[in-house]
Amino acid sequence: MPVIVLDVKDFTTPLFFVRTLEVFSTCATFSLVGSLHCIDDDVQRHANTFWILCMFTWCFFFTVTLFIHILSLVQFHSIIPVSWKNLTVTVAALGTLMCLSASVIYPLLVVNLGKSQSYCVAVAVTSCLTVITYASETYILICTQAEEQRGYMGRVCGIFKIVQLWGNCHMITLIMESNHSPLSSVPEWQLLLSAVSVCIFMSVTTLLVICGDFAGRCPLPFDRFLGVFNLIGVLLYMAATVICVTKILENTPTEMLLVVMETVVAGITLLAYTMDFAFSIKSLCDRSH
Predict the structure, then answer these.
(1) Read out DSSP for 164-225?
(2) Which of 72, 124, 170, 281 has the fewest C-beta atoms under 10 angstroms from its C-beta?
(3) Rounded-to-integer distance, Cα 71 and Cα 80, Å
(4) How confident is the model over 37-91, as pLDDT tens digits?
(5) Cα–Cα distance for residue pair 190/197, rounded to 1 Å
């Protein structure tokens, strides 16, 4: 049975302070939003959807960060069958992107649609503090450690995969909401949803394999799988980006903001897939030589 080992030095490291702030800031943010309802009954229909997205983001990363924080302190992370350095970098980088999006979406699409209340300023402050703390942890894990200590997810290709997962998560929400627009047609909506669903499945599978350290058990070289996944992502998001741009150019939609956000997220995700695919091709070529 493992023995709990607590070292005084563990309570004075930058990671300890940063993760402690992450736990408190995420807890304060979703507690404020959850206890004080700022969504009125007469707001537009998509306010509640984005409210759920923001609440899920803060609650999820509070739970995962608290789990990582406790395991790091009691030194139990070594007995968990995961790649700890890949897991921590993934949570920190993805938490930065997701909390940043929540900090923008909440005041833009939720608060402005409801009754303006003074406590929303406190929510904005705690949410921005959450972004800063996760960005600080990402900097500590990536920029202050040697390349061999970062793990795969701490390198350029790993960051691209985190951006891909971030884009896929937000595209699901935006597609579900923008399909109510007068410009939205059933074939376009189904095509976008199908493309993003395939991409998010590939992203989650890739992260599970890397964080679970299962790459060596794949029947084929894992880098070839990544190359195929990236190629599929590039093709699907090229189609998704074209559809989103077409929706903007055809007419002036009633919900222009949602369509523009959908197009921007699709473009960023397409760029991440394209760059990742280029790195995959370079890696395969280097290995062949």
Answers:
(1) HHHHHHHHHHHHHHHTTSTT--HHHHHHHHHHHHHHHHHHHHHHHHHHTT-GGG-SS-HHHH
(2) 281
(3) 9
(4) 544 443 444 467 888 899 999 999 999 999 999 888 887 767 777 888 899 999 9
(5) 10
